[in-house]
Design a protein that fits this description.
coiled coil, 34 helices, Serine Threonine Protein Phosphatase 5, Tetratricopeptide repeat, Nuclear cap-binding protein subunit 1, RNA-mediated gene silencing, disordered N terminus, single chain, mRNA splicing, mainly alpha
Length: 781
């Protein structure tokens, strides 16, 4: 499909001009014109939608003899990729079917083929959109009611399978339920008994499914003020309410109603049998969801009333807004404009629904679909386009989210915090900070206190220290980050008495005089080893590492670039001093000693150490859980470091997998443009290297999860010995971080679920800790 941006307005002369066949037109020009006409239908126009559809149907019908293949493929792709215009395209297909029955049949065949391919390739969202399109084609008298009922029945048969994951059955039930609001009235009038049978089947399934996963997917653990409903349960309640209303919904724009007299005369097509393909172990189904609710009707005092949580109109509007977001998220300006021109806006408090949908995607668990910056930049664009209302609605949303921080998921607090700082940075950090001053009196680990501390740290990354001091009230002093300056122990008063001070001074002079790495090692050579016992030579010398790392980073402290250049120049010294994991942890400890007040520098330096292989991923993981970092354990930058460490290892595994696959393909084809074409021996060595790296990744996850369990178990034992409640803020934060590791790296952690269940998350650990693992495992159960 063309990626060209649509025109701002439809030129209504398009249809009249196209009716005059221009023999001189090049085929490619005509094809592009057809694509443009089809894609733009339904956009701004001085004529009615019905008039434009009728005109376009005439144009396409005239071009069918020469361009049928093009028209079919464009329409089929629009049906899948532009779901927000479903009723427009079903009406167009209906009008074409009345003029050319064979074309209607070929289109249905093409869509059936696409549906089968989507299921085979696990493109479940596309498959769901096709099922919904089939349903709306029934309203346009293109597909017979009976064959659609047969399709629904075959989809629901999946719930009777044994030995397949519940998420498979969930998806098929969800696909049927999301199609019913579109075609429910038609089924009610023509196949009421079959419809009742389908609904009884769904009701029976819904009542029996396990919901172990639900607590893990809730943004808030509290049910007040809004219930955190499981997605399928909520949709079933909405469809049940629609059933009670005799399947009359008031949200969808149905242009085919204007053509009912014409469409009802058309011959219909039957869908072929479409049994669900059998489950394969490698199939990955969509995760279940918990519905995000931020507003209710009392939050929207002016204008249209917000539909209730169990009204299907709420679901349909949210779904259409999500479609717009999914389709245009790479172009914030176009996306914002499309959201604000939503067709049903006169019936809804549109700004509130848009903000709720965007925050629902931003805070989506286990992970959001897109980068956080995508949602942040989109909200900024919405504020620019709608300055009279959107900033106020957004401010109201922030206040509601802040008030509900007490029970918010740990990862969601991080995302909210990151977005909030980014948003403020675009508005000169203006905010009613005094309204949140009560947070100063709260425990340091209370969610509100932590949120404000981390938000100001994020603001510091986007500003400078004095600016932070200028825009927050003096009472916020406990939350204000320290000035991000290096801390060099050997430059402090009385430093002469510190072990290694004299050597640090000589090393500093040598580095400033541009010494070589070998000369730097010579300066460090005479330092005693505090680990020395008898004649046994320790594997590393922590004093040498401390003097070298802290001195080098102090000298190179002017900027990131200076630090990275210093690391690059003295890479040999790092590798010589830090050949073991214990030594690498000493490197990280010394780095923290210098830069403990500059969190962003810590992240950058650890990332550099990993890239240059000065430290291993396992060393970073063990350092994070060490006593050295206990005071920083609840700070978000520590978890940024852990996640970048895991991602670094995952990226390395993927790189090796790609290289091995390429080498195998070249070897199999016997063709290669490389100077050294791959051989069997080279491929074998690549396989061994990949296996070793995959094993390292698995061991990294095992280390992380074992250290989590050790930390949590020690906390529980300590609290029991003290006679205090172990469910402190620290305990909840740490459990949240454990869940965050599962969620952010779920694609890889799921590969080790069986190993984790047998070796790490066994029944003898604390039930609260075990529950986090079991809830995660249930996401694909």
């Amino acid at each position: 499909m063309s990626r060209r941006r649509p025109y701002e307005d439809d030129d209504d002369d398009d249809f009249r001009l196209r009716k005059r066949r221009r023999v001189s037109s090049e085929p490619k020009e005509i094809e592009d014109r057809l694509e443009s006409l089809i894609m733009r239908v339904g956009e701004k126009s001085t004529s009615s939608l019905e008039s434009n559809l009728e005109g376009l149907a005439g144009v396409l019908d005239a071009d069918l003899p020469s361009y049928k293949g093009n028209i079919l493929s464009i329409l089929a792709e629009c049906a899948i990729k532009m779901p927000e215009k479903t009723t427009i395209y079903t009406t167009l297909i209906g009008l074409l079917n009345t003029r050319n029955y064979n074309f209607g049949g070929e289109f249905v065949e093409l869509l059936v083929k696409s549906y089968r391919e989507c299921l085979k390739e696990c493109k479940f969202e596309d498959a769901r959109i096709i099922v919904r399109f089939f349903s709306d084609l029934v309203n346009c008298h293109v597909i017979s009611v009976g064959s659609l009922v047969t399709l629904f029945e075959s989809m629901l048969e999946v719930t009777l399978e044994e030995g397949t994951p519940q998420v498979r059955s969930d998806w098929y039930v969800y696909a049927v339920l999301t199609a019913l609001p579109w075609v429910g009235r038609e089924l009610y009038e023509k196949k009421d008994q079959e419809l009742d049978r389908l609904l009884r089947h769904i009701d029976d399934y819904i009542s029996k499914r396990q919901k172990k996963h639900v607590p893990a997917l809730r943004v808030w653990q509290a049910e007040v003020p809004h219930a955190q409903e499981e997605g399928l349960d909520c949709l079933w309640a909405q469809v049940s309410k629609l059933r009670g209303d005799k399947w009359v919904e008031r949200q969808l724009v149905r242009p085919y109603l204007a053509f009912d007299g014409v469409l009802c005369e058309a011959l219909q097509h039957n869908l072929p049998p479409l049994p669900a393909p059998p489950h394969r172990p490698e199939d990955t189904y969509p995760f279940p969801r918990v519905v995000f609710r931020l507003f209710d009707y009392t939050d929207c005092p002016d204008g249209p009333v917000l539909p209730g949580a169990h009204l299907v109109e709420r679901f349909l509007a949210e779904e259409q807004l999500c479609h717009i977001l999914d389709r245009h998220h790479t172009d914030r300006k176009l996306c914002a404009a499309q959201l604000l021109s939503f067709p049903g806006k006169v019936k809804l408090p549109l700004e509130y629904m848009i903000v709720e949908v965007i925050f629902g995607e931003l805070l989506r668990l286990p992970t959001s679909k897109n980068l956080e910056i995508c949602y942040g930049s989109l909200l900024l664009e919405l504020c620019k386009l709608q300055p009279s209302t959107m900033p106020q609605v957004l401010a109201q949303a922030v206040e509601l989210l802040y008030e509900r921080l007490d029970t918010m998921n740990t990862d969601c607090i991080d995302r909210f915090c990151s977005w909030f700082a980014y948003h403020l940075s675009n508005f000169q950090f203006r905010w009613t900070w005094d309204d949140w001053s009560e947070a100063v009196t709260l425990d340091a680990l209370h969610p509100k206190a932590l949120f404000l501390r981390e938000a100001l740290h994020r603001c510091l990354r986007l500003s400078y220290h004095q600016r932070i001091l200028d825009f927050v009230p003096e009472s916020f002093a406990p939350f204000v980050p320290a000035k991000p300056a290096p801390d060099y122990r050997y430059a402090k008063e009385g430093a002469e008495s510190i072990p290694g001070a004299a050597t640090a001074a000589r090393l500093s002079t040598s580095i400033r005089e541009k010494c070589t790495p070998e000369e730097a090692l010579e300066v460090l050579a005479d330092l005693p080893n505090p680990l020395q016992e008898d004649d046994v030579e320790p594997a590393h010398n922590p004093l040498k590492i401390q003097v070298f790392v802290e001195t080098l980073l102090h000298i190179a402290s002017k900027s990131f670039s200076h630090s990275f250049a210093g690391i690059a120049k003295f890479h040999y010294v790092f590798k010589s001093l830090a050949s073991t994991e214990e030594a690498q942890i000493c490197v990280l400890r010394s780095t923290f000693n210098v830069w403990h007040n500059h969190k962003q520098m810590m992240i950058g330096l650890v990332d550099k150490f990993l890239k240059t292989q000065i430290v291993e991923c396992s060393a970073v993981a063990n350092w994070i859980f060490s006593k050295d970092l206990a005071a920083e354990f609840t700070r978000s930058y520590v978890w940024e470091i852990l996640h970048l460490t895991i991602r670094k290892m995952i990226k390395h595994v993927r790189k090796l997998e790609t290289e091995l696959e390429d080498a195998k393909n070249k070897l199999q084809k016997g063709e290669s443009e490389d100077k050294e074409p791959p051989t069997d021996l080279m491929v074998e060595r690549m396989e061994e290297k990949l296996e070793a790296t995959q094993s390292d990744l698995k061991n990294l996850f095992l280390i992380i999860f074992q250290r989590f369990i050790m930390s949590l178990t020690e906390h529980i034992a300590h609290c029991e010995a003290e006679g205090t409640n172990f469910q402190t803020h620290w305990f909840r934060w740490t459990l949240g971080r454990l869940q965050e590791v599962f969620f952010q790296h779920h694609e890889h952690v799921f590969k080790y679920v069986t190993t984790l269940e047998s070796l790490v998350f066994t029944n003898d650990i604390d039930p609260h800790v075990l529950e986090v693992f079991q809830q995660f495992a249930a996401l694909r159960a």
